[in-house]
């Protein structure tokens, strides 16, 4: 093997991509907004490769689902940090439901008083969270499906099925993902009820965080399975003996996680500043551009897996990321808010953010209907992307007064929610046999984890 083709050279190159940002971070230098965005963006790219290699290497010693869950948490950790910042500011500023209700929308938007500013931050926490969740599905799930099929012409990915018809080619998912999809289904069902409580409260935290803890407990009991598609750096590191192999994994996780954590916020903030300087409203930037920046490590990691014909692992990572954002992220911002407030409280939000939560839940509902038969076609991915991007573009056009519609921005969100619900319900009815199989497989996974015999597969046989 040529020295330049040695796997450790690839690790060194990826680490070198992070070096300029490490220097900027440690010295406190200020290279300028554009340079800061470029340097931190390159660091995120390098760290994402390290994170992907760490997760693939870990699959030799821990259940694959658990390794992917750790990868997902590390990749989206910056999103937690951004949301926690707004939630903390809201609590510290006294943004209670009563205080925010006493203010007009105009006062909150203008941040006319310290309390109004805190209420504005509470709305931003919800906007950032819902934006991140919708980007993960509308761009992440849809884009990776299309990328998988496109790359399959070279990778011969066995998960890609060629079918006749307009954009009929599809990506098949491993049925082991039934557990993640079922937990995500439960979290989505609960999300529809969150706005009805007037905010995110302790009940939401207990239920949503409890769901994720139960999921992690379940996947920890899964069997360790060796991947037949591991190549390059992960294959080399998996050949290391104990204790060096787990130490290498922990080092890759720790370094890449820390690098992503310190680089994404400046990257996202820099993009926000550039956008505002060019006339893009701050609220729009915080809801869409900042989350897109913070989701970039996850999308890069999944693209790396797909490029190795590991699309199943890639989609597992995307679904796991959606699950932890839809449970842990919502639950933990309420905890951060309460800590800043000094007592157990309810993170408030206005009617607009209620609609944002509903459309996010509606999109999740529709996306789950697409995946309940364990595959997603290019045609379905296009529909998912078009629904997402059309709503964002219409919202932007309304904000900038580029178009006039007979309905308000709030009503537009509710209209899209209705579309998602109608389409999702129709698909679930059409695929009711697949839905029963999905829940049956998830039930068997739970029974196996607690030491009982599977029931669904035996009945199916």
Mind telling me the C-alpha Rg? Answer: 22 Å
**Mean pLDDT over all positions:** 85
The largest beta-sheet arranges its strands as: 1-2-5
Rounded to the nearest angstrom, the distance between the terminal CA atoms is 49 Å
| Count of individual beta strands | 5
**Count of helical stretches:** 18
Beta-strand portion reads under 5%
Largest sheet: 3 strands, antiparallel
Low-confidence stretches: none
Structural class by secondary-structure content? mainly alpha
SSE pattern: HHHHHHHEEHEHHHHHEHEHHHH
Describe the structure.
With 461 residues, this protein is an all-alpha fold. The protein has 18 helices and five strands. It has helices at 7-27, 33-58, 64-75, 77-92, 97-101, 105-110, 114-155, 178-191, 202-220, 232-238, 244-277, 282-307, 311-341, 351-371, 378-399, 409-430, 432-449, 456-460; strands at residues 160-161, 170-172, 199-200, 347-348, 375-377. The strands form two sheets. Strands 1-2-5 form a three-stranded antiparallel β-sheet. Strands 3-4 form a two-stranded antiparallel ribbon. Helix 8 (178-191) runs antiparallel to helix 14 (351-371). It starts with 6 loop residues before the first helix and ends with a helix. The model has no long low-confidence stretch (mean pLDDT 85).
């Amino acid at each position: 093997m040529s020295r330049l083709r040695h796997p450790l050279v690839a690790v060194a190159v990826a680490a070198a991509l992070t070096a300029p940002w490490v220097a900027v971070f440690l010295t406190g230098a200020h290279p300028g907004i554009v340079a800061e965005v470029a340097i931190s963006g390159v660091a995120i790219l390098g760290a994402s490769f390290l994170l992907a290699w760490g997760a693939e290497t870990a699959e030799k010693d821990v259940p694959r689902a658990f390794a992917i869950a750790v990868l997902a948490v590390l990749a989206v950790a910056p999103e937690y940090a951004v949301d926690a910042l707004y939630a903390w500011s809201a609590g510290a500023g006294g943004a209670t439901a009563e205080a925010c209700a006493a203010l007009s929308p105009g006062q909150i938007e203008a941040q006319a008083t310290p309390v109004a500013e805190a209420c504005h931050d509470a709305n931003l926490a919800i906007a950032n969270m819902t934006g991140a969740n919708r980007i993960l599905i509308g761009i992440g799930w849809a884009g990776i499906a299309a990328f998988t099929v496109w790359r399959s012409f070279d990778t011969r990915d066995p998960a890609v099925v060629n079918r006749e018809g307009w954009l009929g080619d599809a990506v098949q998912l491993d049925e082991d993902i039934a557990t993640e999809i079922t937990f995500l289904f439960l979290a989505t069902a609960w999300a529809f009820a969150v706005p009805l409580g007037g905010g995110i409260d302790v009940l939401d935290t207990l239920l949503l965080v409890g769901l994720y803890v139960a999921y992690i407990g379940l996947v920890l009991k899964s069997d360790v399975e060796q991947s037949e598609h591991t190549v390059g750096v992960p294959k080399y590191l998996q050949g290391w003996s104990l204790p060096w192999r787990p130490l290498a994994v922990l080092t890759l996780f720790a370094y890449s996680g820390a690098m992503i954590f310190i680089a994404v916020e400046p990257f996202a903030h820099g993009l926000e500043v550039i956008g505002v300087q060019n006339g893009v409203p701050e609220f729009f930037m915080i809801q869409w551009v900042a989350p897109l920046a913070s989701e970039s490590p996850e999308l890069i990691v999944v693209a790396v897996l797909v490029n190795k014909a590991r699309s199943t692992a890639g989609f597992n990572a995307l679904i796991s990321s959606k699950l932890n954002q839809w449970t842990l992220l919502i639950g933990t911002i309420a905890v951060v808010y309460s800590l800043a407030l000094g007592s157990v409280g309810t993170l408030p939000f206005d009617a607009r953010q209620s609609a944002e939560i509903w459309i996010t839940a509606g999109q999740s509902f529709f996306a789950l209907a697409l995946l309940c038969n364990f595959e997603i076609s290019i045609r379905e991915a296009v529909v998912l992307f078009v629904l997402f991007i059309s709503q964002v573009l219409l919202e932007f056009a309304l904000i900038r007064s580029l178009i006039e519609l007979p309905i308000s921005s709030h009503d537009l969100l509710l209209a899209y929610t209705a579309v998602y619900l109608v389409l999702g319900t129709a698909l679930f009815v059409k695929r009711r046999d697949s839905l029963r199989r999905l829940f049956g497989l998830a039930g068997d996974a739970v029974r196996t984890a607690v030491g009982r015999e599977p029931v669904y597969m035996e009945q199916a046989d």
